[in-house]
Here is the input.
Amino acid sequence: MREPVVRLKRGRDRSVRRRHPWVFSGAIDSVEGEPGVGATVLVRAHDGAALGRAAWSPSSQIRLRLWTFDEHTAVDDALVCARLDDALALRRRFVLGPHTDCARLVFAEADGLPGLVVDLYADTLVVQCHSAGAERIQDTTIAHLRERTGAARVVLRSDAEVRRLEGLEPKSGVVAGPPIEGGAVRARENGLAFLVDVERGHKTGFYLDQRDSRARLRAVAKGRVLNCFSYTGGFAVAALAGGAERAISVDTSQGALELAERNVAENGVDPARHDGLKGDCFDVLRGLYDEGERFDVVVLDPPKFAPAARHVEKASRGYKDLALRALKLLSPGGLLFSFSCSGAIDRALFRGIGAQAALEAGRPLQLLGELGHPPDHPVPASFPEGEYLKGYWALAR
Ligand code: SAH
Here is the structure.
């Protein structure tokens, strides 16, 4: 059977030539053959020049995701396994080790495997296929990574909303190995223990992307810490394991707060040093201020406020409002750890929002460092929008 060919409109080959891995539906001129959902197609520029091979997602705005930018490279199991090995080697080199047994093993486009995310938590692999092309390599991926890591259990978490845009049904659950006891698996990050609800938790159960920021907080935390948007208490545990005396975790999710309590206990920290507070952080920040509470560290790690570019203005107001309330709660010399995971908000804008909040709060703010992706969440130079997580830590005078 002849390989299906997708031809781009005139001039629309430019981003692919710069090795950007996506082609949107509006850039497609014609399709030869009848590629199935997720099938591999040869991509040609309008003049016929071959640009590479891609996965075909007929119902998604992102119609093509490039597997390779080389027309002489076949997209087969050997290619997938070689990419998986490269990805695994990177994590073993920079993240995994005697004190850390959890990492994002595969970060989709960043590892040349568009749409595919695989996280490791101790002996459990959690797999997410966000695109039709990723779905096609799922079985090869699972077999290969099980063999390479010796992981006993595999959990599918292909339940993200984006799958609907791809016309894919949600799929989740333990697909290999023993069932999970006690609702969570136990992972280690920089020597700290974390219980991870891989079946029902956010993402694959844990915010692996905040590893380096948690380490930074642990190194500098003192006094009283307010951990806003705490989820399962990652920042609180890190702060308490460092120099903090007390931490309060605030989240709207009761389940997340319960796991935060368990995570504190797992690390041998006196439970009296940690409080979980269920509530909306916007209200809680104001309430604590009115009650005269003050903190030495405030962490702001909210969910994505700007899912797309059109939300940037409203999201910016949200981020500024939070930073303003947090600054008011900080004692002189206190530290603000502030994050945005909105891809549409870039670093310069996010820092600008912090600067504006500092002006309005009347608190001079000194940036001490940028925070963001750890090495298991690499950002390809040719795919800057892969950098979704931005943050900084700063000192409020
Ligand atoms: N800092 C966490 C990850 C935060 S994810 C970590 O390192 O693991 C964002 C969290 O914000 C989620 O747990 C979600 O339940 C919570 N959340 C969303 N909106 C909220 C709100 N308005 N107030 C409090 N928590 C909120």
Observations:
- The chain has a mean pLDDT of 96.
- The chain has three domains: 5-68, 77-185, 207-396.
- Residues 240 and 269 are 7 Å apart (CA to CA).
